[in-house]
Amino acid sequence: MTKNKKVFLNGEYIDAENANVSVMDRGFLFGDGIYEVIPVYNGCLFCFDEHLDRLENSLKLTRIENPYSRSEWREIMLPLIDVTKNQYIYFQITRGTAEKRDHAFPAGVKPTVFMMCNDIVPFDTKENGVKAITLEDNRWSACNIKAIALLGNILLRQQAVEHDCAEAILVRDNYITEGAASNVFAVIDGVLITPPKSNFILAGITRDVILEIADKNKIPYSEESISLNALKTASEIWFASSTREILPVVELDNSLVGNGEVGQLWRTMNDLFQNYKTTYTANKK
Ligand code: PDD
Predict the structure, then answer these.
(1) What is the best residue among 48, 54, 184, 242 to mutate for testing ligand 1's pocket, by most ligand atoms within 8 Å of CB?
(2) How many domains does the chain contain in total?
(3) Which pLDDT tens digit goes with each residue over 44-71?
(4) Does some domain include residue 1?
(5) Within 10 Å of residue 4's Cβ, how many Cβ atoms?
(6) What does pTM read for this prediction?
(7) Domain boundary, last residue among 86, 119, 152
(8) Which residues have C-beta within 8 Å of that of residue 214, sequence separation ≥ 6?
(9) Domain boundary, last residue among 102, 119, 136
(10) 251 lines ligand 1 (CB under 6 A)
(11) Is residue 210 within 6 Å of ligand 1 at its C-beta?
């Protein structure tokens, strides 16, 4: 653990090595909590309101009380940020610490709030593209909640890593849902396609930004289901997430995607995305 790294825990900024939660915390015992990840570019919280909208939705669906207002959340984040770097805020809210282990909600407990800020480590092979593997999506059917209970996701990501892949593309009943920790885009017959929002995917903020950019720049796009067979015909495949931005896939299940090189639309979109970030951060200063 980095020495002297400050984190926020239940109202206090403390050294990470001294930040402790009870073993009776519902997050520890049940994975009973939700989280968010917000990229921070040189001190600017990227799409803060969109992330807070999703946080509020996750809290509503899990019936966990929101302990802070939006402006309070922002105030809590600021002291953790190094404005000279590109970082991300990770924060989670669990239902709190109960006296005994019981699946049903405990009465009268306060949520546990934990927050930290880490550097974004640029994906070293981004420009060359990455390999991906398709795996059966065996997670539950409430993937629209950004739950800290990520056992399904981590087992899938680990399988991908053990196959020398950067990410897994998850398939439910022959249709693509998302990545283990990302959303999926495919270019099929010249159209940029991503599966529609549903309870089987997390509504990614990066995904929304990509669609907004496509719309503004007249790039043909569609939110529609992608079958596994259709995915195999894609000329480009991308992953999208807050920490990896837009990652091109050049190999899927040991076969080349398109000609096996990073696609032209990815290059265009990546440039537009970088410009979007620059304009966004300049306007918020
Ligand atoms: N995960 N789908 C899943 C399952 C995810 O875990 C993520 C992001 C996304 C993309 O969402 P966004 O564009 O808002 O980051 C989609 C984060 C980065 C994580 O768990 O660390």
Answers:
(1) 242
(2) 2
(3) 999 999 999 999 999 999 999 999 999 9
(4) no
(5) 8
(6) 0.97
(7) 119
(8) 192, 220, 221, 269
(9) 119
(10) no
(11) no
